[in-house]
Design brief:
Length: 471
């Protein structure tokens, strides 16, 4: 049963319970604790290999002091305009602007107060962003980001983190107000009373049945995110009468090395590389976006393609630890000439040579025949990686306001219930094409911070026993 009635029988109590220990959950816990709340964070997995931990850790923010220090002038309004342009003005403009406006404060708070190691990425600009605004850990991995967030949460006296403790139901009173959660830990069932419940358990990309229902274009595709993300947060919200939105929205990615299953940064494409099929021919505009281009890739025979680029771009890729991992795993092949590369990657050499000639001929033109503006000329030695398109995460879910409060269809909040990150309706519009790089962590950490701050006001009455103690 996804919603259990409040019978008054509890085994624990806390001010704020957070469901999920990824980026949203850890950020929400830290923000709520900073607001004076006692927080219990329950994580389903023993070793939480969340989407945030698997991500590139790129957090977009506009107007940060790190940008100013680098001489970059950026405004939240321009950032919101970039997000809206990418999703065809289909996301909630108010929520989009709210998150863009909170982004600089988020990044500075993470660095200054939480102790996250983040630096501005200004060696390449993500497609669709008018400015350099990604802030990322030194190795450009979400694992580092999660390590920093966890360290801060574990050190905080008001936060208790419990792993291997899946939440299996929410508890609600007769009026539909959420009063706590039911979690399993080992053989025990805990009924945790809470003033506020924050759902930070991501979307449903790890649930093949829900993917087939809401995002059929990705049914059967490789899922590259955390296996814990099976969509129950959204199911619970629906059962409580919450509104859902953008359930067809997802982020795919057109550059996961096969069979190694290692992410190949899309910088190898945006900096001038291209993708070919086994005949050595391009099949679309790679710069339409790595999410939507994944669909074109998956339509190729075997659902695979090859990234082709050169030494300059390879060196840029080496800035990314997962790219270095791919090199070590032998996924990245090198050829002193184009013909040698074609042989190394098993692609038709004549076709590849014609493709490169055509690609170079388009350089400087407003657009090539696929609509791409080609700016780079590639020079030997060449590099190639066999890749597939993968599902990264879903972007639809429970409609939440700018404080993360879950809303019903009439706009009224579901009392005491908050959502952020992949469990909440995102700002990526519909389908695969509305996702702008960074929308994932912006909604996870941004809504996590905002929801945590708001939820901290929902403390239980003083005198109630603290989490971890029997009532
Ligand atoms: C390979 C990859 C690279 C990416 N790179 C970027 C990037 O650079 N920038 C960006 O903005 N976005 C990126 N994204 C997207 C980004 O990772 C996600 O949007 C974001 O991490 C979602 O955060 P979250 O906290 O909602 O979910 P998660 O980080 O996945 O955390 C959810 C947690 O909830 C737990 N959970 C689930 N159900 C329960 C339950 N019932 N009880 C208790 N716990 C539960 C899960 O086990 C998991 O640990 C990337 C995604 C992938 C897959």
């Amino acid at each position: 049963m996804s919603i259990e009635p409040d019978t008054g029988a509890w085994t624990m109590a806390t001010d704020v319970v957070v469901v999920g220990g990824g980026g949203c959950g850890l950020t929400a816990a830290l923000a709520a604790a900073e607001g004076g709340a006692e927080v219990l964070l329950l994580e389903k997995q023993g070793r939480p290999w969340s989407n945030t931990a698997r991500s590139g850790g790129m957090i977009p923010a506009a107007g940060t002091r790190f940008q100013r220090d680098a001489g970059i002038v950026d405004r939240p309004e321009d950032f919101a305009a970039d997000i809206l342009r990418k999703n065809g003005h289909s996301s909630d403009p108010e929520l989009t602007l709210r998150l863009a406006r909170a982004s600089a404060e988020l990044v500075e708070w993470l660095v200054d107060t939480v102790g996250a190691r983040l630096a501005l990425i200004n060696d390449f600009k993500y497609p669709g962003h008018g400015q350099f605004r990604m802030h990322a850990p030194p190795g450009r991995t979400g694992a580092e980001l999660v390590a920093d967030l966890r360290r801060a949460a574990e050190a905080h006296p008001e936060i208790i983190l419990v792993a291997d403790a899946p939440v299996v139901a929410l508890v609600a009173d007769a009026a539909g107000a959420v009063t706590g959660v039911v979690a399993r830990q080992g053989g025990a069932v805990e009924r945790v009373r809470a003033g506020a419940t924050i759902l930070a358990c991501n979307g449903f990309a790890g649930n093949p049945a829900l993917v087939a229902r809401y995002c059929p274009a990705m049914a059967g595709a490789l899922y590259f995110g955390g296996e814990g993300n099976t969509g129950e947060g959204i199911v619970w919200g629906l059962a409580l009468g919450a509104d859902v939105a953008y359930m067809d929205a997802f982020q795919a990615h057109a550059s996961v090395a096969v069979p190694h299953n290692i992410l190949i940064t899309y910088a190898v494409i945006s900096e001038g590389g291209f993708q070919v099929d086994s005949a050595g021919q391009r099949f679309g505009n790679e710069m339409s976006g790595y999410s939507e281009h994944a669909l074109a890739l998956l339509a190729q025979p075997g659902g695979v393609a090859w990234n082709v680029y050169d030494e300059r771009i390879h060196r840029l890729g080496l800035e990314f630890s997962d790219y270095r991992e791919a090199v070590e795993a032998g996924a990245v092949r090198r050829g002193a000439t184009l013909a040698a590369l074609a042989e190394a990657i098993g692609v038709d050499a004549e076709g590849l040579a014609l493709t490169l000639d055509e690609y170079h001929a388009a350089a400087g033109q407003p657009a090539d025949r696929f609509g791409r503006r080609v700016t780079a000329r590639l020079a030997p030695p060449f590099y190639g990686v066999k890749v597939t398109g993968a599902l990264f995460h879903t972007q639809g879910g429970l409609r939440a306001d700018g404080d993360g409060r879950v809303l019903r269809a009439d706009g009224a909040p579901v009392p005491n219930l908050y959502a952020g990150g992949g469990v909440a309706a995102g700002i990526s519009g519909h389908g695969a094409g509305g996702y702008l790089s960074g929308n994932g962590l912006l909604t996870a950490l941004g809504l996590g911070m905002l929801a945590g701050r708001h939820a901290a006001r929902m403390r239980l009455a003083p005198g109630l026993p603290a989490a971890g103690r029997d009532l």
